[in-house]
Amino acid sequence: MATLKEVAAQAHVPLLTAYHALSGAQAVPEAQQRSVHAAAETLGYTLNITIKDVAALAGVSIATVSYVMNNSYPVSEATRRRVLEAATALNYRPNANGRNLQASKTRLIGYGWHNIKRGQSAPLLDRFTYWMAQAVESYGYHVLTFAHTEDSPIDAYQELIQTNRVDGFILAHTNRNDARIRHLLEARVPFAAFGRANDRWNFPYVDVDGRHGIALVTSHLISLGHTRIALIGWPEGSLSGDARVQGYFDALDAAALSPQASWIRRVENTSTAAAAAAADLLALPTQTRPTALVCVSDLMAIGVMSYLNRCGVQIGYDIAVSGFDDDPVSELLYPPLTTLRQPIDDLAAQVVALLMAELERLPMPQRQILVAPELIVRASTDPHRQVP
Amino acid sequence: MATLKEVAAQAHVPLLTAYHALSGAQAVPEAQQRSVHAAAETLGYTLNITIKDVAALAGVSIATVSYVMNNSYPVSEATRRRVLEAATALNYRPNANGRNLQASKTRLIGYGWHNIKRGQSAPLLDRFTYWMAQAVESYGYHVLTFAHTEDSPIDAYQELIQTNRVDGFILAHTNRNDARIRHLLEARVPFAAFGRANDRWNFPYVDVDGRHGIALVTSHLISLGHTRIALIGWPEGSLSGDARVQGYFDALDAAALSPQASWIRRVENTSTAAAAAAADLLALPTQTRPTALVCVSDLMAIGVMSYLNRCGVQIGYDIAVSGFDDDPVSELLYPPLTTLRQPIDDLAAQVVALLMAELERLPMPQRQILVAPELIVRASTDPHRQVP
DNA sequence: CTGAAAGCGCTAACAG
DNA sequence: CTGTTAGCGCTTTCAG
Predict the structure, then answer these.
(1) Are B342 and B208 in contact, with CB atoms under 8 Å apart?
(2) Considering CB atoms only, which of A94, A145, A333 is closest to B163?
(3) Which of A42, A284, B213, B293 makes a 20 to 30 Å CA pair with A89?
(4) Nearest protein residue to D8's C1' (by CA)?
(5) Which residue of A has its CA nearest to B116?
(6) What is the pLDDT of residues A74-104, one digit of tens each?
(7) How far from the centroid of its chain's Cα atoms is residue B172's Cα?
C-alpha cells in the first residue's frame, strides 16, 4: 500500500492538501481535487492515516511521533508541537492492531454468555454488561462478548486464549465448581468474577451480600408485625444460595423467632417452581400458615404473585411477598414488588478493577468483595405504599 | 523474546520435550523438566507457540506452515502431514493479532448500547446480543460491545473506526434520522441495523413486521367477538411505530369495522404512560368504551394490566389486553399476556448476514428485510387458556 | 533530543 | 513444491 506522501508527490500537491482532497474535511480547488484522486487511484491508495503520514507532515521520524503520542520519551517543545499539529491536522489515531501486536496484548476483555432458556431470565445481566463495558473502557480496554453453550463453555474460552484474542475474562453467572474458573485458574489466565464458586478456590470476585440482603427484608417483615415468615430459596449447594437462606435465619434469630422447617422451601430458580412452593405453603393449617413469603429472586416472586393473584389473595394485605434483584418489571407489577436492589454499576466497576489489578499484576488490598444490596420497599409487603 | 527452539537448544532437549516440560501437557523426566525451566528462566521465555515453533518442529519454513494452515497454496502431502502433526503436537493456534495486522482487518464487529433508563426496558436486546454473537462467530468474527451515552453516541463510533478497532457495526434501537446511521453512511463504514430509520436512507436492515403483527392480534380480537378495540401506540413519527398503528387499521378495515379516534392513544413507550392512556379509555361512556386494548409493546401492556388489576377489572373476561415482543416475564404475569413473538435468533442471523455481505462486498438479493412475528395467544385475551 | 532499525506474528509475492 | 523476504503499524532499544 502506498503512503499519503507518495500520493501527494504524484499529484504535485502538499501532503495536507492531498489529505483534504481525500478526506473531504476541507475544501480543495477542483483541479487539485481531481489530480489527487487520480493519483490515489493509480497507486491503489485508500485513505488511512498512519504514523508515517504524521511523521512526513511534521518532518520528523516515526519514532519521534511515537514518543510524542505516548509521552514515552523526552521531546523538545518545538518538535512536540509540530508533531501534535500534524496529528491534529490529519486527525491521526494510532492503529490499535499495530500497537497491540507490538505489545503482545489485545486490550480486549472476554465476556461469554450462554443462552438463557425461557422461564429463566437474567434481567440483571444486560445492565451488568453495560456498566462493565463502561468501566473497562475507562482503562482503555474493550469488551469482546462471545456466545457459548451452557454445557461446554470451555472450548470457547480456550479458543480465545489460544488465539490471543483477549487479555483476560470477566465471568458472570458463576456456580459452585464452575468449570470455567477451574480452567482459567489452571491455565493461569487473568480473570475476575461476578459471583462466587466455592471456598477452596482463591480467585478475585465481587458478589452481592445476599445474606445481609435477605436478613434486611426479613427484618422488615418482622417489623411490620409478621411472625410466620416463609422462605422460598434455591436448592442447597450454592454458596450464594445458602448465604441467602442464612440471612433469613439471622433475622429470625435476632428477633427471637424460631424458624420452622415447614416454612422453608428450596426449589429451582423458576417462577413455576416458586408458585408450586407457595401453593404448598398456603395449604398449611391456619395456625401455622405463613403470612409472608420471602423469595430469593424476583423471578420466583413474580411466579408466586401470579399464583396468589389467581387465588384471589390480596397481596400486601393477606400475604406479603418479597423478591431479590429489582428486575425492571418489578415495580410495574400489581402490586409493585418489594425487593433488594443490587448496585449493579458499582458491582461492575469493582469486578473490572479486580481484573485490571490481575492484568497489571498490581496487588489489590482485597480480592474478594461483597457488596450490600439496598432494600426497596413497595406495596407487596407494605400496602400503604400503593400508588393511587 | 526467545523462541522455543532456543530454549530447547540451551536445555539440550528436543523441541517437543521442551514444549511438554513447559506446557505440562505430557510428563517429562525430572531432570529435563528442570533444565528446560532453567533455560526458559534465563532466556526470559514464557510459553507462546508461534508459527516459527511449528516450522522448527516440522523442519520447514514459516511460509509453508502458513500455506498449510490456510490451504492457501499447494503443498506436498508429506510436508503437509508433517506440518499438521507439528501443529497438533504443539497445540498451535495462529495469533489473531498478527493475522489481523497483516490483513488490515480485525474480524471484530462493534455493537454499542446506551444505558436503558428505569421504567423503560429492552428485554429483547440481551437475547439479540446472544444470537448476534453466535451468528457473527459462525463467520469467524467476534463482537466488541461498547457503551455510549444516549445523547452523543457518535464519538464512541468514531473512535472505534479511527483506531481500526472494528471492521463494521451492528446497530439496534434505531430511530428516525438516527445520527449513527447518518454518520456511518457518510463515513462509508460497513454496518447493518436491527430496525428502520426513514425511507430516504438506503442501508441494510432487518426489522420485525409490526404492521402485520398488530393486524394479526387485532384480527384475533375481532374473531373473539370484540368490536370496540382500542390501540395504545407510540407517538407519531417513527417508521415502525406508525407501521404498527397501520396494522390496526388494516385489521379493522378487513372486518369492515370503522376506527374511532377516541380509541387511539399515542403515548411514550413506558408503562405509566400506557396505564394513563388505559385510564382515559376506561373513562369513555359505556356505549363507546373499548372492550379490548391492543398495546404496541409488552412494557406498555404490563403497565395497563397493573392498572386494570388495581381497578379490580378481570383481565381477559371484562377487558382483553395484548402486547408485543414476548418479554420473558409476559407469560408469568397474571393473567399471562397475549403477545407477538419476534423470532429473535432469526432476526440476528439475518442482520449478521447483511453485514457480512457488506464486508465482503457481496451483492445481497435484498438489503431490507421484514420478518413476520408470531401471535402467542394467552389468557389476557382468551381466558380459556388460563393455566389451572 | 532525534533517527535508524529491529521485531511483535503473520501472509503473500517472488525466487529458486 | 518450498524458502526467502518484504511488509502490515507500532514501540523501543541503540547510536548519533
Answers:
(1) yes
(2) A94
(3) A42
(4) B102
(5) A127
(6) 999 999 999 999 999 999 999 999 999 999 9
(7) 8
Minimum-distance nucleotide, CA of B101 to C1': D8
What does residue B292 show for φ and ψ, rounded to 5 degrees? Answer: -145, 140
Give me the phi and psi of B260, to 5 degrees please. -120, 130
Rg of the Cα atoms in chain B: 29
Average pLDDT for chain A: 93
Summarize pLDDT for A290-315 with one digit per residue, the tens: 999 999 999 999 999 999 998 989 99
Residues of B in contact with A310 (CB under 8 A): 334-335, 387
CA dist., res. A370 & res. A368, Å (int): 7
**DSSP state letters, A75-143:** --HHHHHHHHHHHHHTT----HHHHHHHHT---EEEEEE-PPPTT---HHHHHHHHHHHHHHHHTT-EE
* pLDDT tens readout for residues B252-294: 999 999 999 999 999 999 999 999 999 999 999 999 999 999 9
Interface test with chain B among A186, A333, A385, by most B beta carbons within 10 Å: A333
B 101-140 residues, CB < 7 A, strand D: 101-102, 104
DSSP string, B211-244: HHHHHHHHHHHHHTT---EEEEEPPTT-HHHHHH
Whether the CB of B239 is less than 7 Å away from nucleic strand C comes out as no
The residues of A between 112 and 171 with beta carbon within 7 Å of nucleic strand C are none
**B329, A122: Cβ pair inside 8 Å?**
no
A142-147 vs B142-147, strand pairing mode: antiparallel
- Cβ of residue A108 closer than 8 Å to a chain B Cβ: yes
Tell me, yes or no, if the pTM score tops 0.90: yes
Mean pLDDT within B355-383: 93
Element (H, E) at B375: strand B374-376
- Which residue in chain B has the smallest CA separation from A105? B97
Residue range A195-227, pLDDT digits in tens? 999 989 999 999 999 999 999 999 999 999 999
Amino acid at A46: T
Give the contacts of A130 (CB within 8 A, at least 6 positions apart). A348, B113, B114, B115, B116, B147
Q: Among A320, A358, A122, which Cα is nearest to A224's?
A: A320
Is the pLDDT reported for residue A122 higher than 70? no
Helical pair B77-89 and B62-70, crossing angle rounded to 10 deg: 90
Whether pLDDT at A143 is above 50: yes
Amino acid making up residue A120: Q
Residue corresponding to grid cell 380459556: B384
Residue of B nearest to A101 (CA): B97
Residues with Cβ within 8 Å of B184's Cβ and at least 6 positions away in sequence, in order, are: B157, B169, B171, B191, B203
Query: What pLDDT is stored for residue A124 in this prediction?
Result: 60
- Cell digits for B165? 478497532
Listed as ranges, the nucleotides of chain C within 7 A of a protein C-beta are: 1-5, 7-13
Average pLDDT across chain B, whole number: 92
Contact between A304 and A278 under an 8 Å Cβ cutoff? The reply is yes
Contacts of B244 (CB under 8 A, 6+ apart): B210, B211, B213, B214, B233, B234, B296, B324
Distance of CA A5 to the CA centre of its chain: 44
| CB within 8 Å of chain B, chain A residues 252-271 | 271
Contact between B136 and A147 (Cβ < 8 Å): no
CB atoms within 10 A of CB A268: 13
* pLDDT score at B164: 95
